[in-house]
Amino acid sequence: MGRRASWTAFASTLAVFGLLGWGIVNAPNWPDFQASFLDPDLFADALPDLAWALRINVQLFLIAEVLVLVLGLVIAVLRSLPGPIFFPIRLLAIAYADIFRALPGVLVIFVLGLGIPSLRIPGVPSEPFVWAVVAVTLVYSAYVSEVYRAGIESIHPSQEAAARSLGLTRAQSMRYVILPQAVRRVIPPLLNDFIGLQKDTVLVSFIGVAEVFRIAQVKESANFNFTPYLAVALLFLLITLPLTRITDWLIARDRAASSAGARA
Amino acid sequence: MTDPVQLVLRVAGLRKSFGQLTVLEDVDLEVGQHEVVCLIGASGSGKSTLLRCINLLEPIDAGRVELGGQDITAPGVNVDRVRRRIGIVFQSFNLFPHLRVLDNITLAPRKVLGTSRAEAEDAGRSLLRRFGLEEKSLDYPDRLSGGQQQRVAIVRALAMQPDLLLLDEITSALDPELVAEVLDLVRELATGGMTMVIATHEMGFARDVADRVCFLDGGRVLEQGPPAQLFAEPSEPRTRQFLQRVIAAGRL
Amino acid sequence: MARLRIVTLGVVSLLLVACGPGGPTTAPSSPASAAPTQAGSLAPVETAEPTQDACAKESLQTLTAGTLVVGADNPAFPPYYIPDDPNPEDSEWELGQPPNGKGLESATAYAVAEELGFLREEVTWVVAPFNTAIQPGPKTFDMYLTQVSYRPARAERVDLSDGYFDLNQAVIAIEGTAIANVTTVAGLKEYRLGSQVGTTSFEYITDQIQPTPEPRAYNSMNAALRALGNGQIVGLVADLPTTFYMRDAQLDDGVIVGSLPTPAGADVEHFSIVLDKGSPLTACVNVALAALKADGTLDAIRNDWIAGQGAPELQ
User: Which overall architecture, per CATH, does domain B4-248 show?
Assistant: First the structure.
């Protein structure tokens, strides 16, 4: 921005946010609101415990996201297998995606996390965190497989025609020509789903995992103050904002390097 | 009549329909080694479809295609293996945008033929050098002009050392000033003895480079012969009609 | 770069305004609430004793004139609320049926209602989840009974009556597990315990027992019970009468490890009736409870519904 434009933007920002702030602070119930939601002492007190509990959410979404990216891709590829002999496989893949997109995530978490261990099948773990990973992975892979599928179908058929014409098998043309382009195209929606996954980790509180939302709930019910929830909100903002910025940067860099980056 | 043993390509009684529309009806074609055959005809006359049937991108409804004596349209044929021996270049280049030029060229030799990366890159570079494109080898396709991209597409097909090269209207999507560089490359290939079937609108080019020109009309090869003869004295009335229109458009 | 600075300026200024001084930092404003300084079943009310007239039925400002609305959680558990046999098909109550007057809390509610002058037909019941009933905010009931323990922090947000029942927390486990043999509170520290989030039961775990494995909090006692059955927790903490119900009716192989001692220096835990913050009924409810205690009704109710429940006392 030019110098003059910068100053105008600066002044305008100050005016808008200042006015907003003044309006909020002078609203009739502001003192009550501030006491209930923005108590600085409670905030400072809760933050370390919450940040510590957050590590569980972070572990959960890091592990689950890797699994989701892989499983989602597998489902998408299975869904695209051609020919009558693969019909049952395609059907299974479609059913999987339909079912797990239909079910509320918390339901899957609850049923898997509390239900399966109650069957006491030998060899099946009862640790809630494990089932949290499984449930989250199952649910999100369904969405991600659809994202991949959209990406694959967006690649012009002439690309596959060119690849097959060179003698590449279907699998090879998928692997070296279609998928690299498809995946690059769908990075923004994939990241969107990742952010959704990060937030949905709080649902595992339902099966007793002592993650950040649960801890906030314990603190909130002890003090009848919502400030811990605000702290949780801030923590999630801190985690997801950098991720969004990084993606934007990745996309811009890709465009600069022209088309998309990797070597075969 | 060309010696059957030397036939690279033989198409017999080929029939292809898309739903109700029959595009190719009883097409016969023979191409001997080192021969350059040009297919001419109006749009929709089936030139592209014929090429796509030859390299098995389209399944055929009747007839057969033989490559070097082998029936490649028989059931149970390994289509991927057959395609290694046939190269095709498309009107819209179809380079892989996510790969650099050199990688576009070496992908198939490495993954299909198992050539080592070093060997494939050497071969690729020397092909690029031969056609004056070596300095582009590490660029991405969208940095190249249309003519350059098409030439890279030809090199990509050549890298597999095919027995037969199919060119499907490869200059139709190019700006006029870029057409020449591509045609020059093809001329050089012809001189070098590459067996080719070329679908084209460029009549002047066809007259220069073809051993034989086939005129497709109504889904059949209506007339074929050496270019000098066909362009000067076509026997079929429809051929004459077509050529007259082409001359009137200033393209011959 | 300039853009980044401007955005930061905007966000920072908003935050500063939000967290800075803008009003009193502590909340509660209304004076006349029943928040006794000492805990215990009966404590002298701080506000002036209401006159008899103020507690006459006609003067009571209930939500709906002439009706007393009582709230409870669903499912309502024995021995506080008892199911019918069978439960009526159109009833919204899954387990215990508060309207039938059976169970410690149902009976107490009706006894208080009678003291206030309401006939049985003038008492209606509503479902209200435990977690939201004890939150500040407007209420769908005049009074609420679902094992809500008195806590000063709670008393700042809602009105809590004097106690109607003293209790201890207890630990329940599965037969044959190692924890079942524990005899001291300290002995519980090494085990994975759990309870419902936001309850004094869970608070007991975190504040008194302080076990080494992180305790697990669930959205409902039933979920916690399920986890106990799965082995995902090995000990569940709940009030003693509830653990009896769990052992006798809900678990096949449950065993009560023992009752937990009242923390040193603290008063015995008691259940209070919940009313809206600053409710005009609170003082009169306390008067009613005092009368019921004096004439032995509360004792009789306890004897009816919580009979002979002895358990080993953890040291």
Answer: 3-Layer(aba) Sandwich (3.40)
Before C75, cis peptide (omega within 30)? yes
pTM over 0.95, yes/no: no
Residue (of C143, C114, C115) closest to C128 by Cα position: C143
ipTM metric = 0.91
Average pLDDT per consecutive 10 residues, chain C (315 residues; last block may be shorter) = 64 59 39 38 50 76 90 92 90 92 95 94 93 82 94 88 94 94 94 94 94 93 92 95 92 93 90 93 94 94 82 83
Subunit contact A176:B111, Cβ cutoff 8 A = yes
Q: Taking CB atoms and an 8 Å limit, are A218 and C197 in contact across chains?
A: yes
- The label of the residue with tokens 């600069």 reads A256
In chain C, the domains with their CATH numbers are: 53-166+271-305 (3.40.190.10), 169-259 (3.40.190.10)
| Both tokens assigned to B109 | 């030799």
Angle, vertex CA A261, rays to CA A256 and CA A264, nearest 5: 155
C131 touches chain A (CB under 8 A): yes
Which residues does A contribute to its contact with B (CB < 8 Å)?
158-159, 161-169, 172, 176-177, 180-181, 184, 257-264
Chain C positions touching A10 (Cβ under 8 A) are: 2, 5-6, 9
SS (H, E, C) A223-260: HCCCHHHHHHHHHHHHHHHHHHHHHHHHHHHHHHCCCC
Peptide bond into C79 cis (omega under 30): yes
